[in-house]
Amino acid sequence: MTFQDYSTPVPLQGNTVRLEPLSRDHVPELRDAVKDGELWNLWYTRIPTPEKMAEEVESRLAQQAAGAMAPWVIRRLDTGMICGMTTYLNIKAEHRRLEIGSTWLAASAQRTAVNAEAKYLLLTRAFENLDCIAVEFRTHWHNHASRGAIARLGAKQDGVLRSNELWVDGSRRDVVVFSILDSEWPSVRLGLRHRLAPLA
After folding, report:
1. Cβ atoms of residues 88 and 55 within 8 Å
2. Which residues contact 110 (CB under 8 A, 6 or more apart)?
3. Which structural domains are found in the chain, ordered by start?
4. Burial level of 33, CB count in 10 A (0-12/13-18/19+)?
5. Cα separation of 33 and 27, whole Å?
6. Contact 41, 47 (CB under 8 A)
7. DSSP class of 45
8. How many Å apart are CA 19 and CA 82, to the nearest integer?
9. Which of 33, 41, 9, 35 lies closest to 23, judged by CA?
10. Which of 66, 70, 108, 168 is most deeply packed, by most CB within 10 A?
11. In whole angstroms, what is the distance from residue 21 CA to residue 2 CA?
12. Which of 22-26, 41-45, 130-134, 170-174 is the least confident region?
């Protein structure tokens, strides 16, 4: 596998969501989605305002062109509306590793099957198409909802990188690192399928 394989988003569809490769045409719908919950006001995340959404899309597309990211939008199948974004990033094709992150979901899509199925689709591609040996997740220490969601996927906590980043307001960000290994994927896959089975 090459960086291009890892950084090329392809359409992925389940029973609840469709992941579409990010494009500039998605900007208007993404602006609407991020207003659902005014997500940019969450102090422990970096989510763009509606006014900064076009800039965020350009940044992600530039990183994709550089082989550093594979960006998608998340579209709900029940409403047909975009409800968030997600990516592969920190791509290390030579080590068959990547991170799933830079994810945000509209408030109305949180605590639904949207996140679990989106992650199931991304993990399936990572392990079964890209032959990854490890997939990583990172989140802010104080983002308890994100930490819980990652743990429910079946990821194990590797550790905490203390004072790993300086945050927007100058505070220090402790980063919690989780991962799933290829040897763990069969059981994680079964767990996710069980969670998603009632929706099939």
Report:
1. no
2. 37, 145
3. 3-199 (3.40.630.30)
4. buried
5. 10
6. no
7. S
8. 9
9. 9
10. 70
11. 18
12. 41-45
Q: What mean pLDDT do residues 120-134 have? A: 97
pLDDT of residue 173: 80
| Six token digits for residue 101 | 């992150």
In one letter, which amino acid is 108? S
Provide the token pair at 24: 């500039």
Buried b (16+ CB within 10 A) or exposed e, 113-145: bbbbbbbbbbbbbbbeebebebbbbbbbbebee
Tell me the C-alpha to C-alpha distance, in Å, between residue 109 and each of 117, 176, 178, 195, 200.
12, 23, 23, 16, 18
| Alpha-carbon separation of residue 172 from 2, 162, 165 (angstroms) | 34, 8, 6
